[in-house]
UniProtKB/TrEMBL annotation:
<dbReference type="InterPro" id="IPR005921">
    <property type="entry name" value="HutH"/>
</dbReference>
<protein>
    <recommendedName>
        <fullName>Histidine ammonia-lyase</fullName>
        <ecNumber>4.3.1.3</ecNumber>
    </recommendedName>
</protein>
<dbReference type="GO" id="GO:0004397">
    <property type="term" value="F:histidine ammonia-lyase activity"/>
</dbReference>
<feature type="modified residue" description="2,3-didehydroalanine (Ser)">
    <location>
        <position position="146"/>
    </location>
</feature>
<dbReference type="InterPro" id="IPR024083">
    <property type="entry name" value="Fumarase/histidase_N"/>
</dbReference>
<feature type="cross-link" description="5-imidazolinone (Ala-Gly)">
    <location>
        <begin position="145"/>
        <end position="147"/>
    </location>
</feature>
<keyword id="KW-0456">Lyase</keyword>
<dbReference type="Pfam" id="PF00221">
    <property type="entry name" value="Lyase_aromatic"/>
</dbReference>
<comment type="pathway">
    <text>Amino-acid degradation; L-histidine degradation into L-glutamate; N-formimidoyl-L-glutamate from L-histidine: step 1/3.</text>
</comment>
<comment type="similarity">
    <text>Belongs to the PAL/histidase family.</text>
</comment>
<keyword id="KW-0963">Cytoplasm</keyword>
<dbReference type="InterPro" id="IPR022313">
    <property type="entry name" value="Phe/His_NH3-lyase_AS"/>
</dbReference>
<dbReference type="InterPro" id="IPR008948">
    <property type="entry name" value="L-Aspartase-like"/>
</dbReference>
<keyword id="KW-0369">Histidine metabolism</keyword>
<dbReference type="InterPro" id="IPR001106">
    <property type="entry name" value="Aromatic_Lyase"/>
</dbReference>
Length: 522
């Protein structure tokens, strides 16, 4: 895929396409096959609009108001009115990348030729994306059934030259001004077009795809920090042997164990658990604590959950979600494909996995800071314990984040609430599941960053004992120090160090530093 251009055909898109458009500067083009499919399905809608029989979305009202037949002279107003009335979001504006993903995925469905809109409408969506115009979409308004109605309505409002949008410079201005500046004519909606622009799971799906990309990086990051903690605690890497994981054949578990084993290759710190190297134990350890020994099992379960989520996302990225839909044989049929349950469930699954991964990382950090369990490390990894507090309160911050992630793990998709005069009497809450997952991903990034700060400091302190970490740990230590995170020593203003570590993890530089020694990690 050319990262600077994504060509939309009729068969769907990839997660990489979504990320390229949402987060990057990739331009969007409509393939000739998509334009032909759009024109063909529009002919079907025009033919139905000319008939006296009512057709939902073409010549009727919507939802509980679908009982009214709408005369031809009112149908344009009907389509514009559904956009205006449904653009009822409240709260802060959501992130630019979310809105771009939302619009791109709606355009993906339009390009499938199953919605019946004119090619002009699809071209206008592409033009708005390519111009860097981002409609203002609010946090609240979607129940995740009949699609992400309010968020998509705010996007459609901009296509009509109404409402507000953010320009390429980040300033929020009237949509009409921004369209005019970029030579884009506002769309005058015709039969079915307003409904087709609103009726999809595009917001929750876009957020799922981006969260999956972030979580893939964080799972690898967690394997790296777990390995560094194991080194710092003079643990054993024997529990990472492939034959042990082959007898419990979860693929994610094997991948995480392999990552850790490769990060620990060549380490002089591992294997001292049975020798009492640190001189602090009444008897040698037989085995490491669960938070260290079971790291591959927990992170691996997260990997397998992510694999399932990507399977669901892939199916949804190949789907045409609209109601009614234009079928290949020319029929226009009502359906329930807009229900967000498949996406909502996996968004909630991922929030659970993120919370548990954060929980085990925090337990490892706490072990590094507790002199009774750290096997010879100074209390709180402080320079002069008692005068210095070291990383004591960094763990408080981490614990607060973990507690928040546990609250965010409560499923949104189990909390349906009826709407539209009981016509829409069961909804997915998929948008809400996606919003809380984004918060959880941010929290998990910070939790892993705190473990990195602690583990890096602890590994360096082991140097005073004449023990040398492995090449991967040395590469990470060099990179994290260059990023502005201080090593052992006296107390200092800690928040900037934690912020620098967070950015180091978020940007992927932690993974890159480890891979400089290990080669590509899973």
């Amino acid at each position: 895929m050319d990262m600077q251009k994504v060509v939309l055909g009729t068969s769907g898109v990839t997660p990489e396409d979504v990320v390229a458009v949402a987060r990057g500067a990739a331009r969007v083009e409509l393939a000739p096959e998509a334009l032909a499919a759009l024109a063909a399905s529009r002919e079907v809608v025009d033919a139905l609009a000319a008939k006296p029989e009512p057709v939902y979305g073409v010549s009727t009202g919507f939802g509980a108001l679908a009982v009214r037949h709408i005369s031809p002279q009112l149908r344009g107003r009907l389509q514009s009115n559904i956009v205006r009335s449904h653009a009822a979001g409240m709260g802060p504006a959501v992130e630019r990348e979310v809105v771009r993903a939302l619009m791109f995925l709606r355009l993906k469905t339009l390009a499938s030729g199953r919605t019946g809109v004119r090619p002009l409408v699809a071209r206008t969506v592409a033009a708005v994306l390519n111009a860097g115009i981002t409609p203002v979409v609010h946090e609240y308004g979607s129940l995740g059934c009949s699609g992400d109605l309010a968020p998509l309505s705010h996007c459609a409002l901009t296509l009509m030259g109404e409402g507000e949008a953010e320009g390429p410079d980040g300033a929020v201005r009237p949509s009409a001004e921004l369209l005019a500046e970029h030579g884009i004519e506002p769309v005058e909606l015709r039969e079915k077009e307003g409904l087709a622009l609103l009726n999809g799971t595009d917001g929750m799906l876009g957020m799922l795809v981006m969260a999956a990309a972030d979580l893939a990086r964080l799972l690898t990051s967690a394997d790296i920090t777990a390995a560094l903690t194991l080194e710092a605690l003079l643990g054993t890497d024997r529990v990472l042997a492939p034959e042990l994981h082959a007898i419990r054949p979860h693929p994610g578990q094997a991948a995480s164990a392999d990552n850790m084993l490769r990060v620990l290759a060549g380490s002089g710190l591992t294997g001292h658990h049975q020798t009492g190297h640190d001189g602090q134990e009444a008897a040698p350890r037989v085995q490491d604590a669960y938070s260290v020994r079971c790291a591959p099992q927990v992170a691996g379960a997260g990997r397998d959950t992510l694999a399932h989520a990507l399977l669901v996302a892939g199916r949804e990225l190949a789907a045409s979600v609209d109601n009614p839909v234009v079928l290949p044989d020319g029929r226009v049929e009502s359906n329930g494909n807009f229900h967000g349950a498949p996406v909502g469930y996996v968004l909630d699954f991922l929030a659970i996995a993120a919370a548990d991964l954060a929980s085990i990382a925090e337990r490892r950090t706490d072990r590094l800071l507790d002199k009774n369990r750290s096997h010879g490390l100074p209390p709180f990894l402080a320079g002069d314990p008692g005068v210095d507090s070291g990383l004591m309160i960094a763990q408080y911050t981490q614990a607060a984040l973990v507690a928040e992630l546990k609250r965010l793990a409560v499923p949104a998709s189990a909390d349906s609430i009826p709407s539209s005069a009981m016509q829409e009497d069961h909804v997915s809450m998929g948008w809400s599941a996606a919003r809380k997952l984004r918060t959880a991903v941010d929290g998990l990034t910070r939790v892993i960053a705190v473990e990195l700060v602690a583990a890096a400091r602890a590994v360096e302190l082991r140097g005073d004992e004449g023990l040398t970490p492995g090449p991967a740990a040395r590469s990470v230590l060099s990179a994290v120090r260059a990023a502005g995170v201080a090593g052992p020593g006296g107390d200092r203003f800690l928040a900037p160090d934690l912020a620098a570590a967070e950015e180091f993890v978020r940007s992927g530089r932690l993974v890159a530093a480890a891979e400089a020694a290990t080669g590509p990690l899973a």
